[in-house]
Write a structure and sequence with these properties.
By secondary structure, the chain is α+β, with helices and mostly antiparallel strands. It has two domains: about 190 residues, no CATH class; about 190 residues, no CATH class. It has 13 helices and eleven strands. Strands 3-4-9-6-8-7 form a six-stranded mixed beta barrel. Strand 3 and strand 4 form a beta hairpin. Helix 2 packs antiparallel against helix 9, helix 9 packs parallel to helix 12 and helix 11 packs antiparallel against helix 12. The longest helix is centred in the C-terminal third of the chain and has 44 residues. It starts with a helix and ends with a helix.
Length: about 400
């Protein structure tokens, strides 16, 4: 019986190609919108979350220099900014902290770095200490990390990011050789493994960087930032509060710094993602309603065109439930054709992007949102039932005598 209803539905769709195409297109656009936009939003969130997890996760709190807000009038009385002494004080006095990594230099400007054979590359320069690489979950691929002795002795040594090493030493043998930054030569003691951080760089491209001992890069101890990794993200607010109090005391109550709590930041991104899903749902819902109206229109026209057929079936004893079932199935078939078209297009586009995007942006991950697929399937079925119910009920309620005369619709 059901298969027969499906066959009849396909025949009706074939008989009204133009109306069928417009209705299917509207439903397909709605389903495509849900699958594609939600998947892209989830892909961005997944890539960002993985990037943050790759540098230590939501346990990281960044301290940046900032213009004073509360104590702006006192700025002239304190001009040191963030210093290495601040970082050491945080390391010594903050509880629930796994590492404190001070950073000098870096930021927006790159510098020319020269190697033998006339090779030159513009790279980020960052002054760091022995806590930087482990604190940001970076890995030394060849050679060694910086040590406390390198900083104490102000050794002219450096570590190269993976792409920086490849550009300066194409033969793959960077460790033990020298590079020149400005007028100073540095011996390469290590190279980093490729870092895929999805944009989480804090002003430094970890693949195109030269890491110098902080005491050499900034002899006066001035810092660009301090990265604090807590033992668990739930301790971030406590650490921020204590760090704020400690730095205010050290900076003579001048609040020339700010905090970036990655745990709070990620929570904000998830809220934005939820809001985006709501907006996408509303936009897709408009398209599905348009498609649903097309389903209702097609089914009502079908009731009019098949009045005699319906009347004959009722006269021969067909229950009203059977007639209603037939038209509901026809509406569902029409909705499902549009839903499958949109779903196929959405999955296809996401799959295509998943194979292309990593070739140009290796740190980005494109994923298919299965909840979006499930929501699209449910919305398609709901549209078929909701907008097919009225025509199905009208067909089942026809008076057989009037329908046989063709007077009812």
């Amino acid at each position: 019986m059901v298969l027969e209803h499906i066959r009849q539905a396909m025949a009706q769709m074939a008989a009204s190609r133009a109306r069928t195409a417009l209705t299917v297109l509207a439903i397909a656009i709605g389903v495509l919108s849900v699958v594609l936009l939600v998947s892209l939003g989830q892909s961005a969130l997944v890539s960002l979350t993985r990037g943050i997890e790759a540098i230590g996760g939501t346990r990281i709190v960044i301290v940046w220099p900032d213009a004073p807000q509360v104590a702006a009038m006192k700025q002239a009385s304190y001009t040191d900014g963030l210093t290495l002494a601040d970082a050491r004080a945080l390391r010594a006095r903050l509880p629930r902290v796994a590492s404190v990594a001070p950073v000098a230099g870096g930021g927006e400007d790159s510098e020319a770095v020269h190697a033998g054979g006339g090779r030159m590359a513009r790279l980020d320069i960052a002054g760091v200490d022995e806590a930087y690489i482990s604190g940001h979950a970076l890995k030394v691929q060849e050679g060694r990390d910086l040590t406390a002795g390198d900083l104490d002795r102000r050794e002219h040594v450096c570590i190269l990011g993976r792409l920086a090493a490849d550009r300066l030493f194409p033969d793959g043998r960077a460790v033990g050789r020298e590079v020149r930054v400005a007028d100073t030569r540095y011996r390469v003691v290590g190279t980093l493994a490729m870092a895929l951080k999805a944009g989480m760089r804090f002003g430094t491209d970890w693949n195109e960087v030269v890491l110098l001992p902080l005491t050499v890069a900034s002899p006066e101890g001035r810092l660009r930032m301090i990265s604090v990794t807590t033992t668990a993200s739930r301790h971030n607010p406590e650490v921020v509060a204590l760090a704020n109090s400690l730095l205010l005391h050290r900076h003579r109550q001048v609040d020339d710094f700010q905090f970036l709590d990655l745990g709070t930041m990620i929570a904000g991104y998830y809220k934005a993602y939820d809001a985006m899903i709501l907006v996408v749902g509303l936009l897709a819902g408009v398209s599905l309603v348009i498609g649903g109206v097309g389903i209702t229109n097609m089914m009502l026209v079908g009731v009019v065109e098949r009045t005699r057929e319906i009347g004959l079936r009722i006269a021969l004893g067909a229950p009203a439930g059977t007639i209603r079932q037939q038209f509901l199935i026809e509406a569902l078939v029409l909705a499902c054709v549009g839903g499958l078209a949109g779903l196929g297009a959405g999955v296809g586009i996401v799959s295509l992007l998943a194979s292309i995007v990593p070739r140009f942006q290796p740190e980005w991950t494109v994923v298919l949102s299965w909840p979006a697929v499930g929501a699209a399937v449910f919305a398609t079925l709901a549209t078929g039932v909701a907008f097919g119910w009225m025509p199905a009920r009208r067909a089942a309620a026809l008076d057989p005598v009037a329908a046989l005369r063709g007077d009812a619709a």
